[in-house]
Amino acid sequence: MIEHGPGMPWAVAHATAGDLARPLPAERTTPDAAIGRILAVPLRAAVAVPAFDTAAMDGYAITGPGPWRVVGRRLAGPGEPVDPLLGGTAIEIGTGAAVPPTTEAVLPYEDSARHGDLISGEPRRPHIRRAGEDLRPGDLLADEGRPVTATMAAAAVQAGAEELHTHRPPAVTLFVTGDEVITSGRPGPGQVRDSFTGLVGAVTARAGGHLLRSTRLPDDPVALADALGRPGAEVVVVSGSSSAGAADHLHRVLTALDATWHVRGVACRPGHPQGLAELPGGRWVVSLPGNPYAGLVAALTLLEPLLAALAGRAVAPPVTAVVTGEARLYAAGVRIVPVTGTRILPGARPGSLHTAAAADSLAVLTAAWRSGDPAPRLVLP
């Protein structure tokens, strides 16, 4: 039986999608491959940083009072161990090079004067980075739950990490239903182009997942049931077939597959006939309305928080900001409108994306909203 009521309150549906899922198991990856993923365990230094006493400036490693006699040179890179410096001696040294034992300071070139093999000057600072002064083995770099940035990955490499433990990114399969949908070329009479694959791919990537494939399906319950019954991605997204029309088969197919519904219709306009179900075995199904703008609303309402939770990301309520302008409010729920800056863009229709394309976010307006009031904002992909 398909339900036709107003549906679950929008805020409850959005929170439900993020609360139900648990992060996928951790896997080991190289630091570079972990960028964009979420740490499953704390990241700690494996080695000291610096690993040895190093020169922090180009100049001369010195010991004892000056002037000093230059007895050698050392640049950054591997090399034989250097003998300890004797009092009154120095070696020319490059930034990052290991300083000899007993070095008291590095005298920068700009603070020194050289006459033949003798240098003089007054060291104002040691200019030596001591082994372990930044990190010692076991020191915490980042707690679990943190997203791995390129900077964090580089810091992990510097601290000796060979691999990071991160949550596996959720995989998504998209089924674009509808006899009228074509994937390329100019639409003929009764045809429309697939505008969902790019949108779902972008929302998926932003939430920390990856789109495995997008497949077009006819308006046929057998084909839909066969597609949903195949093993594969953790999340299956179905665009279209979500309402109660003669060609809308998803609800009946999911019921036949013993799916558990968690969200079955949301009290919002557009995007009401969206849903979230769980198949036996734990795979998720997100139902998006076939109208492109309504489908975008549903993707940001249910798909993005679900994927973020599976990826191990913290799922927070949308930020709120002032919204101005006019909107036809929805008495039984919320109206979701395109916004640029604070201003509502007029002309949004469930079947068209052109107004949303000019916006930077979608505002979620309750029936009590008035121009100038704050409202939750969904950032557009």
UniProtKB/TrEMBL annotation:
Annotated GO CC locations: cytosol
EC nos: 2.10.1.1
Pathway info: Cofactor biosynthesis; molybdopterin biosynthesis
Domain of life: Bacteria
Reactions that this protein is recorded to catalyse: adenylyl-molybdopterin + molybdate = Mo-molybdopterin + AMP + H(+)
Similarity annotation: Belongs to the MoeA family.
Summary of the function given for this chain in its UniProt record: Catalyzes the insertion of molybdate into adenylated molybdopterin with the concomitant release of AMP.
Record's protein name: Molybdopterin molybdenumtransferase
Organism: Actinoplanes awajinensis subsp. mycoplanecinus
Lineage: Bacteria, Bacillati, Actinomycetota, Actinomycetes, Micromonosporales
